[in-house]
Amino acid sequence: MKIHLVIIQPAGYIHSLGFLDSARFLRYQFRRLGYEATIGKNRALPDAINIVFGAHLGFPESWERDCTCVIFNQEQLGAGGAALPPAYMELLRRSHVLDYDAANMPAYGDEGEKSGLLRAVAPLLCAPYLHNANGAMELEDRPIDLLFIGSMNQARQQLISRIESCGVAVSHFDHPMYGPERDHYVSQSKAVLNIPFYESTRFEQTRVFNSLSVGTPVVSLRRPNLIVDQAFERAVHWFEDEGLENFFALKFNTDEWFRLSREYLTHWRVNDGYSSYQALAQKLIQLAKHTAMAFGHCGADKIESITLESKPRVITRLNLSPERGYRPEWVNAGAVDSGSFKDIILDLDSLKSSTQIIFGSDPGVRYALIKGELTKVYLFCHHGGLPSPSRLMAILDFLAPQGSLIMDVSLGVFPSMDQRPNLAFAMSEGQVRLLLDEILRLDCRDNKLALSSCELTNNSVAIDFGEVWLGRFTLTNSSRTPRERVLARMVRDDFSGLPEDT
Q1: Are residues 340 and 435 in the same domain?
Q2: Which of 85, 86, 278, 458 has the smallest set of CB atoms within 10 Å of its CB?
């Protein structure tokens, strides 16, 4: 059995990195049980059980048809929980689901197993690979008193102000921080502060399990009726709203508090989750067997033989720049040495025949690139460098009527949002128009690439120096006007292919 842990990340959405902690923990658990487990972004594998994180950010419809997917719900559902799209709740109702907390299940139908759907709890417990990952440091010697991790709202800010009035310095990040880079600061902290964001009764396992596993105590506000797993009950320092000042003024950072912290951390390391994931693995094996029977195959060799006999998938949306982000529901094509995830290896400059049959990177999957079938193509141009006329003409060959090429052109980095690269954008637009004019001169076909829209946009990827700006140009496969055909005859030596008059 192969497990693939998929993180959904819309372009430039940094908060998807928050799913890395859970994905790493599940990868560790399945690998220790002897199964192949991998982590990827925006790409489900047809020959694996795909456990999908962040499905509320967008779940490709084709994955339900072509892959075996299990949704990992990491959101707080039900009364007092997160406001989530109805489409996500419906997805949970009809899908196999793993949840970090059984209390979430009634919100999407905890009786799904009666319909043959997997419903299981995947607790987030001790991650021994994180212990002392950044070097051991005694709690008393750590430079950060109390570290708060998470987005700030008014309720959290008020609690932090009350804590600081007790003489405790509370540190927090001024920009999103995730993964090993965040864990470095966690390991430098005497404790991590957990303040629930929602009013629900679920406990934030996803934040707390990682900090405890790094070897840093956690101090958490306990709200009324909070549901807490026993592993966390005995590993976390709890305080209530009315007892906040007493806890931080008289108990926090005392010799007794440090002694208890070491005791709690020792207890925490016993909760490795082995038995839970051993049972979960058996359920996933049954799911894999059921899926194999449903599709009529037993393994990758069968998948390949069946796929080779069936028709290849016709490519309608083609991403020629997967290094800028893998696009679900598209076919992602890159060069051999592109170093990015891709479905196929493709060089448009070498295409000549009307149909190209291409073997994909997944076992046995084939694709057909057929002239006139592409509805959308995406291409990124680095540092303002535009593609050659021959490359654009190759794309035009395969575009459907009114099909479009979306071309992002990098314009540069500017220090602030107030400094828009209007001149660079205008020059880039001029270069695009000159390129299209050159294609009209070189080519004598009846269709053309026409500039249907252009806009100046800033890339959401954060850079210390400033904002990355792009020019987005949409080129559409359009018919040439009679005037354009006449002008082409004027500039071409062969008069653009006169009739033979036979």
Answers
A1: yes
A2: 86
Q: Are 19 and 52 in contact (CB under 8 A)?
A: no
Q: Which domain holds residue 139?
A: 128-268
Total domains in the fold of the chain: 3
Q: 214 and 100: one domain?
A: no
> Is the domain of 343 the same as that of 438?
yes
Of the candidates 32, 52, 40, the residue with the CA atom closest to the CA atom of residue 98: 52
Residue 115 burial (CB count, 10 A): 10
CA dist 56 and 143 (Å) reads 38
Query: Would you call 424 helix, strand, or coil by DSSP?
Result: helix
Q: Let me know if residue 207 belongs to a domain.
A: yes
Helix (H) or strand (E) holding 328: none
| pLDDT score at 293 | 63
Encode pLDDT of 468-486 as tens digits.
Answer: 889 999 999 998 888 877 8
**Cα distance between residue 92 and residue 81, in whole Å:** 16
Report which residue type is found at 229.
D
Question: Angle, nearest 10°, between helix axes 482-491 and 422-442?
Answer: 70
Same domain, residue pair 84 and 134: no
Cβ(168)–Cβ(253) under 8 Å?
A: yes
Percent of the chain residues topping a pLDDT of 70: 90
**What gap in Å lies between CA 26 and CA 4, rounded to an integer?**
10
Please state, in angstroms and as integers, the Cα–Cα distance from residue 14 to each residue in 254, 256, 342, following that order.
37, 39, 21
